[in-house]
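Handover notes (outgoing to incoming on-call)

Open items:
1. Heparinase: sequence verified, structure written out, both below. Nothing else pending on this one.
2. Nothing else urgent.
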Amino acid sequence: MSTNNKLKSSVAISIIILFVMSSVLLNCNSKQEPSNLDITEFLKHARTDTIYPSAKQMEMLKVIIPETTYKAAPSISDRTYWDAIATTKSAQEYLKDAEKLLGKQPEVPITDSIYRLANKDGNRKIYKPRYYRTMEHLEHYILAECLENKGRFIPQINTYMQAIMDMKSWLHPNHDDKDNGVLEGRRVSIDLGARKFGMVLALGESLLGDSLSETMRTDIQKQLQWRITDNYLKSCEIADENNRWIDGTSNWNSVCTSGALFVTITNSTSHEERIAAVGSAINSMKHYVSGFGEDGYCSEGLGYWGYGFNHYLYLAQMVSDYTSGKINLFEGENPQKLKNVGNFPEQFEIQNGTCAPFADGVSHISSTGSNFAEVLSAAHYGAIKPSEIRFEEAVEQIIAWDNPEMFTPNTTQNSTSELADHTYFDDFGMVISRGKQDVPFSIAIKAGHNAENHNHSDVGTYILVVDDELISGDIGAPSYMAGSFSPNNKARSSWGHPVPKINNTLQSNGKTFKGIITETNFSEQEDKVVMDIKPAYDLAVLNMLTRTMTNDKTGNGRISIEDHFEASEAVAFGSAIMTFANYEILDGNTVLLIGKRQKLKVEISSSVGQVVIHPEPVPVEHLREGKGAKRIGIDFETPVKSGILTLKYTPVYK
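Heparinase structure tokens:
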């Protein structure tokens, strides 16, 4: 072969080799950079009998979940990161707060006798503050040590970590079974408290590393594996008596799942366990999100929206960070619904910072506690950014340090917007009709069903607000004490709500016992809502029962509630005025409600017969909204086959 031909052959071989090598490199790069997880497709492959991911789901996640464990922040040894954080104003303030806590002793373990008493009586005050102060102090010590790196907080950290590991049970005592099975070591379970104890230990071990002794690190890892990871994954795979929140729709699901996931992907040495935990969490969050209406309505109320959605958003941030953005739960499988959920607080406000205390909700928008959910909702869903930033957990603070722009308070625009004349959550059937008088008079009224989260068997309930005072209507939730969730608790049944009672029969429980909004008419002058609430009652004799709310917004305003019923035979029929206000019975058809600053006149009319006004105290000692709730019964004097009972509420100004 000539020299020229040899050269050509050599060049050709080189080109082929380069082509092959390029193809290999391209294939390698494609393996190193998997595409984002298609969550809709992922959920199609979920098993129907368990939260634990299917083989196909595990396969989809395997190329996305890193081989390494998750770290909420770099280790203390990364001084470039921590020294930069330490120069910020918020970090300096955080360090000062931690210094004030030096020398304080952990308040756990509590004694077995206190645990058993709290389990029996449901009294959270004798243990819960101790639990959360202990965890808050430890979180401050951990982050302060990372900021300072002088070993000054290590003795306190060791003391607190050991105290937590010495606890027989990490549960809230009232979440243990009646025989104290977790305390006695017969089983392990995860609740709102246990997930937090686990998170704090996992965070400390992950960040502090060799600053802790090898024995301490090993003990933490073993306890986290036993108390959280093994228990969590077992319950995900096989339904048992533990962790029934796993496929629930309430705040428990997002809160406990986020904690169990954090512990597992931070602490577990098994890649398969970390994959399974992420897959289980995604499957579980489908159930949690399903608990909201398509319109974003949260039947648990605003307080639980903040608590539950806060942890959903943290979970979304966690898996996004862990997978370099390849899993996007901020959009999930239904981006519009999550956007609606993120904007729920603004839509749910009645006026002047008040909202409906339906179910176990709160009546006033809190100015304390974490507003992490509001901050992330502003970033991801276009919600109003708050004018101040508040945290309750160390992981929130870390995210804020990593995203300073996101967590800068809103100072350039109003942190509130003009509320609409009305809001209609048409999925769950809840309406807020807002008066725009100088002293606004407004109402929130719901249909819904009697299997909602924290439900009170309250189809048709409402709340009336004058200015910022909830003067009549729903009296809210019993305080969480022994018996607060009992069906015999009158504040949790329809007896304790401004809804009809028929033949001494209350509303029944279950999703089929519901109200249906059949007509709405909204205008500047008047709002009208008609709902069929007959399905809420298991009464064969009842042929028809509608409730009509009319809000006449002219003048000082007037709101009427009209109940129209028909039965196949004469029935005892009545409704009620529920209030914390003082009252005067002016005559047989008029009651004056006297609040702290406002007054309402209630005019009672009936289409047939006479009515009897029968006031009585609500026999529930501990109510979240206060003391002294009254049920002013309004009943037909004798049974009737059909009739209309109307209550007209008018503000009184003198």
